[in-house]
Fold each of these.
Amino acid sequence: MNTPPLLDLRGIVVEAGGRTILDVPRLTLAAGHTSAVLGANGAGKTTLLRVAGALIRPDSGEVLLDGASATPAAIRRVSAAVLQRPLLRRASVRDNAETGLRFHRVPRAEARRRAGDWLERLGVAHLARRPAHTLSAGEAQRVSLARALALSPRLLLLDEPFSNLDAPTRGELLVDLGEALAATGAAALLVTHDRHEAAALADRMAILHTGELRQEGPTAEVWGHPADADCARILGYDTVLEPDVARRIAGNGARPLALRSEDCAAAPPGAAVNGSFLTIQAELRRVIPLGSTSRVIAELDGRRLLATAPAPAPDWLAALRPGDPIAVRLERDRARPVGFS
Amino acid sequence: MDVIWDALGDAFNLLFSGDAETFEIIALSLRISLTATVIAFALGLPLGMLLAFGRFRGRRLALATVHTGMGMPPVVVGLIVTVALWRSGPLGGLEMLYTPGAMIVAQAAIGTPLVAGISAAALQQVDPDFRVQMQALGASRLRSLWAVAVEARLPLLAAVMAGFGAAVSEVGAAMMVGGNIAGETRVLTTAAVLETSKGNLALAVALGLILLLLAFAVNMVLTLAQQRGRP
């Protein structure tokens, strides 16, 4: 017999102001695994996370724990959440790290030891005596994570834990969090708008768009097979070609094609066609320098097509004017069909 | 100018000559106003919490009513308490009128809206997600409310100071419900009014100075508690 999932959301609907802001027929999370819910701002990610943590009550649907209907108190007993902004108490770092344990009536000495342990593992033990409001955003988020992990939760709920951090801080914390999750064996539900964070931490990925669950599956599968044009955009495919255009270029299927601009190289118009490459003839609109590369905005049948070129722009590209023909080349298998066959 | 120098001299004498009557007045003032403050806080904080976090019809109306109460003239409060405690009034059976108890009731009634109004604002100042975060770490509803109150402790202590300040400084209600009976219900403010009306300006000013000193001492203690751990 299969073990029931740790967390099982069924028929969850949340309404606000007469509008459905969340509609998730089914979402499960197995014990010890990490799932990411990917979506744009306002897609309902935070609402979903709060339903999962029994922090808000859905208008309909239920949350099952280990296959059985669970009370909010039971869910909160086994879970801990890290909200988007690190909400620390006006107290020392150490007191903050112990907060959850004290709520769970863990004796002070043990709370101090467990919290201290996690401050150490997340590299902020040297800040233990500092008042929490003097921390940087990255330090505060580490304390917030330590506070949640110190509870040894079976279910860790993470709401965009990296969104307020600068790129280097984010990268380091991402690695540390990944290690922490592996070490504890806790299941984690991560909601984020950043597909790279999701891919780095999660073995399964779900895509939420305007409150609807559009796609769910193993990370690698979702990453390469967007279910629809919205999912494709959320997964970073910044160009989606309509079926008729896709058929003309790739010569197969009746499905849209999704492309990532980093896979698409701008080339001189009429560049040679190579068997393993697709070449798309388009019209140049703009070239935007982005430091080490340039973003090339082209147009094809009135639709935008994004490509990449070196920066500074090579001579042939610098000579082109908006409206001139340009070619865009990419490896054939980098153009991903959208939807399921 | 002479009045002020005389007053300073009188105040000094009253404080340091160990005048029994003066100390009785000071002690009664402190006892009545501190008790009233404790009651105002005990009632005002839960009321402030309800107004800050409650979801019920008429919340805004209730909040506006409390805000009006924050500026209620003590004379009006005194009048209401007097009518309520009047021998033939609804609470006349308690026989509380012209006792320190009646003054505590009146001063608590003056302080409660102040504490409630400032508390509601103080609690709403805390990030609404703070409470969610506390619950997400295992706090019960009540425990999470307490955590928010602890987080807002600085402005909440300001609410206590405002409550005490209003209680100890008011004179209208104390006069009406206490009656300014020597040795029973005479407090610093009512004594100062009496001495002024008798023309004893120096003594009145001396009582006023003592009142200020008293208010300063209590607020200093509260401020030290509030600013603990800050440079």
Amino acid sequence: MNTVNNNALYTYVLGLADDALILGQRTAEWCSRGPFLEEDVALSNLTLDYIGRARMFYQYAAKIEGKGRTEDDLAYFRDEREFSNLIINELPNFDFGFAMVRQYFLDVHACLYLPKMMLSSDQHLAQIAAKAIKESRYHLKRSETWVLQLGLGTEESQRRLQSAIDELWGYTPELFIMSEAEAELAQCGVAVARDSLHASWTAQVSAHLSAASFTIPEQDWKVVGGRTGEHSEHLGHLLSEMQIIQRSYPNLEW
Amino acid sequence: MQYISLVTPEYAARRANRANSDCADWWSILDQVFDPELPLVTIWDLGILVNVEKLADFSCKVTVSPTYSGCPAVDMISDDIVIALNQAGVENVAVEVSLSPAWNTAMISPDGKAAMLKQGIAPPGDTINCPQCHSENVNVISQFGSTACKALYRCNSCLEPFDYFKEF
């Protein structure tokens, strides 16, 4: 086995942490705004799972970096261009249908990705994946049911979800693009080769969308760049809201 | 109560580990620590208390494994463990939160399941019965209930809503 490049490992883990934090923060916006009480509770619980994941990854990233930074430093004191989450995670919620389609796309992805991550030669990453996969399988049960229910629901729910699918489709190729760090770490069995998951993901998602009466969009456009810090206009606003307390009162504790 | 207790291999392994430990008194002290979100279930019965060890310097090391990644109760549980041991005169206590072995519902003790039932929560299992009237005629209202580890159900027989501790 090749020796693991510490910088690449830090970059890789930080990307996973940013993915989890940004989606968690975005989903947290539903708290008190869910379409009905039970759904509000469910969305808030979903958020907790992602924030929990983000903490595990940030703690590990901080340890790998070894410069004395903490999970909070990484979450609250980095700027937009330093965040390396995939763009699909930062897009606004728009409406419940949009948020559910995004969640469904990401849940299918997680249920393909995490079982591979459980086989990582990095023990700590394998342990985090073993924890997270159970949650993601549960999330998927829920999001795939919503996609089906809204697809076969009313004319309006069908229309709204189809437009969400069309809008989100171009953000999904990025889920399967290998960063430099990932490519290097995949060689030594640490990172998951996410490019190898694309065909299974497309097959699974297409079958379910068709069953729910949706049209599969053409893959004729895509937006990429999140891993290298090139984001949509939405991330900065999310970060300003999330970081303002720590930026105004550094090291404040509850 | 119609509950038939079956000891899972996971729970049997935990019980054996505890029985073979050289710090039985410390384990007993921790039987007084309850999960903050399940007030009748101890951390031992819930299965999140993984190990209690006496280290070479005679300090006490406690290992816990959280139920869910984002379980907000972990910090409070760690504090409760330190407080319980300190109050019993054990001064030097360190709590380690470990991801391995990953917690699952098979680690819950039979007493833990009985305690859930007593507070109106359907314990994890193959069949989900209403904790009030034991009917099997139930349906899910929401896959997430009052906490991440529970789902919300309703009994179609007695019409009472109830929490179900998810099989995990």
